[in-house]
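Hey, I was hoping to borrow your eyes for a little while. I've been staring at a protein lately and its backbone has me curious. You're getting the sequence in one-letter code plus the fold written as C-alpha cells. Would you mind checking whether the C-alpha cells look sensible for this chain? Here's the protein in full, and shout if anything looks odd to you:
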Amino acid sequence: MRFEIRDEVAWITIDNTDRGNALTPGMRDRIAGLLDGLNGRFEARAAVITASGDRHFCTGADLSAPREPAPRPEGAPQPAVGEVRRMMLDGQLRLMPAILDCEVPVIAAVNGTAAGIGCHLALCCDLVIMADHARFIEIFARRGLVPDGLGAWILPRLVGLQKAKELLFFAEDIPADEALRLGLCNKVVPATDLVDATSDWAGRLASGPTRSLMLTKWLVNRSLDVDRRTMADNEAWAVELNSGTLDAQEGVASFRERRQPSWRGF
C-alpha cells in the first residue's frame, strides 16, 4: 500500500502488481484503517483509491497470503462453525463499510481490471472514474462462490435487482463503456487521462463545503434503507447540523453579496 495526502486529497494506492493488485488481509485492513483515520480530521477533505500499473485495479483477495490460524483445542475441526463468518465480518465486511461511512467523498480511479471484492471496492466508492480499457468482473460464479464484500447489497442499488442477478449469475466481463451505460461508473476516460481526471474531481471536492458533502453522503447512503418518516427525520437533523457550520454561513453570505463562496471545510 502507498498513502499520501496532496492538496487535501488522500491518495490510497494498491501496490501488489505481481499478484494483480490482489488484497492481502494486511492490505485490506490498511485501507480500512486509513479511511477510518480520515474521519474527524482536517488534513484531507477527499480521498482516492487507485492502484499501480495499467492492467489491474484489484483482482480480489490474495489467496496466496498466509493466514495465522486461531488457537484451538485438540480435536477441534478446522474451520469450526462460525470461523468463516467471523473472518468475513473482520475482513471484507469491515473494509466496505469503511468506504461507505468515510466522512469525506471517496473516488475510485479504476486503472484496470476490478474483479471480485476489487469490483465491490470500487462500487462502494462515492464516485467511480474508469480508464477506457478497464473492466469489472463479478467473478464469484466462475469459481462456485457466493458474492461477498457487500456485492449483493451495492449492485442492486446501482443497476436494479434483475440486472444485478444477471451480472452475478453469468459473471461476464463488463467493459468500461458498458459499465458507464449501466451506471456502475460516472465517467470513462483514456488511460493516460485517468490521473488528471481523478485529480480534477478530487480537487473540486477537497475545496468544497466538506461538512455539507459529509452530511449529503450520509443522507444518500441511507435513503434506500429507511422509510419516508425516518428519512424526513434524518434530513431534518442533517440540515440542523449543517446550519451550524461556517461554510453554511458563508454560503448564505456569498449568495446575498453576489460573490463566489470561499469554503473552509468546517
